[in-house]
């Protein structure tokens, strides 16, 4: 089985590329979605997060926007949160890989925003990075509710710079010129990696 890592800085178009890969029939493990599930009602991380960040849990689920306010821009707090979540995300990923090895799946995707930051590329045969010019990235992200220029700057400060991600990538998917070129590039990558 081949493993394609998919990553990209905030707002670059990673989730859009992941959705295209799913439509092409490739199973995708989404680290962000796993994090959100772990912190949703009844999620395995809720108790530990509530203990480390008092007041962020309401109705049995973590208020992610409030938690984000507490951790983005505060590296020590973010580290504390990551120490709770990353082992649980990794466990879910391991189960996903094991399941697909058993099924005989030829190609799977690991969609991980912090792929390079956490050494995840070592678990991948190839890595694709989604990228677009910084002004477009900012335009896209600032449209989101609850997002501000300060929050964006704090998040970007915690991420490997786009230029380094591109340097380390096997494939760069350029999302600044529309969806069609990204889909075309993904089809090529999937064909090569499945064969
Ligand atoms: C702080 C949290 C609650 C904010 O949740 P929210 O739903 O508001 O935002 P979302 O998860 O969509 O993230 C927004 C952007 O921040 C980026 N981001 C998230 N966590 C991190 C991090 N630890 N370091 C750098 N960037 C991050 C994401 O890639 C995304 O681009 C959440 O991001 C979180 O729990 N992060 C820590 C866990 C983590 O490291 N996740 C990354 C995947 S393993
Ligand atoms: N190839 C593309 N062409 C045009 N617009 C795109 C493309 N890819 C993504 N977009 C747009 O950019 C925005 C961000 O895309 P997306 O949510 O996929 O980013 P992301 O990298 O997953 O973000 P995050 O890391 O914050 O979760 C969305 O509004 C999406 O519609």
TrEMBL record:
Keywords: ATP-binding, Coenzyme A biosynthesis, Cytoplasm, Kinase, Nucleotide-binding, Transferase. It is found in: Cytoplasm. PROSITE patterns: DPCK. It is an enzyme of class 2 (transferase). It holds the Pfam family CoaE. GO terms for biological process: coenzyme A biosynthetic process. Gene3D superfamilies: P-loop containing nucleotide triphosphate hydrolases (3.40.50.300). InterPro entries: Depp_CoAkinase (IPR001977), P-loop_NTPase (IPR027417). Belongs to the CoaE family. PANTHER family: BIFUNCTIONAL COENZYME A SYNTHASE-RELATED, DEPHOSPHO-COA KINASE-RELATED. Catalyzes the phosphorylation of the 3'-hydroxyl group of dephosphocoenzyme A to form coenzyme A. This is Dephospho-CoA kinase. The gene is coaE.
